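Objective 1b of the project was to move from sequence-level analysis to a structural picture of ligand recognition. The entry below was assembled by the postdoctoral researcher (A.K.) and checked by the PI before modelling. It contains the amino acid sequence of the target and the SMILES of the bound compound, LBFN2T5F.
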Amino acid sequence: MWDKQKTVWFTKMHGAGNDYIYVDTSVYEISDPSSAALKWSSPHTGIGSDGLVLIEASPVADADFAMRIFNADGSEAMMCGNAARCIGKYLYDKGITDKTLIRLYTPSGIKNLLLHVTADGKVDSVTVDMQQPVLCNTRQIATPEGTMVEGIVEVSGVEFKGTFVSMGNPHFVIFTDDVLHTDINLYGNLLEHSPLFPERCNIEFSQVMKDGTVRTRVWERGSGITMACGTGACAVAVAAALTGRCGRESIISMDGGRLKIAWSEADNHVYMTGPAEFVFEGEIPNI
Ligand SMILES: N[C@@H](CCC[C@H](N)C(=O)O)C(=O)O
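Corresponding predicted holo structure:
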């Protein structure tokens, strides 16, 4: 048996297929989360995941808990929409809180989570107030104005038209006529590392389908292709509304599932609703 002091109990969860390892740091201290994310995310020599999420005590009085998110390459991100929903389920289903409205502190501000609980007392979906999208950020996009709406970007001799949207973290949304045949592995990787994005970037390739849903495939900064991205879905919904492709409410359909996004005219906040699921739990040597 492993020495308890040297091991960490983890929970693997996913939100629309975007899978992370969750650790409650009120029980287990992770001294080097960046190295832990890199090591444990490996599908062959670790647990396998898109990254590591720490559930922490809130550093401020007006939030209930806090979240930190590390990509599979060990880089820390400002926000993760799918992880926010999973944290809501983790806290409620494990009896850590009985609140159905949780205030979650993140590096990009406090997010309100509204838990939808079924008759058998389990959370099956969560609505997150993702706050206001930011269309201008000179740190995240290297244009003179710090904005880009339907701008042309060339990578490896191919031109893409894209829109920059920050949901705390940076996103570049590209609408295409054939999303299923776009080489997102090649172009996502090149765009992530383009000098246009000084902090690198998450890239979404999207297509509005006949039924009005927005089929989206995701290349995430620091993790590569993922089955879904919550902040990415919000960015796609905002870009689609901004460019007249959709209204203020849309369904973003990604490889691992669908998210419902509403960009409110009343408060300019983006509300994301979607599932959260447990996968398995286990014990791993601490870093
Ligand atoms: N999958 C997440 C976003 C995770 C962070 C992202 N890769 C970044 O570096 O900004 C989501 O669901 O929002």
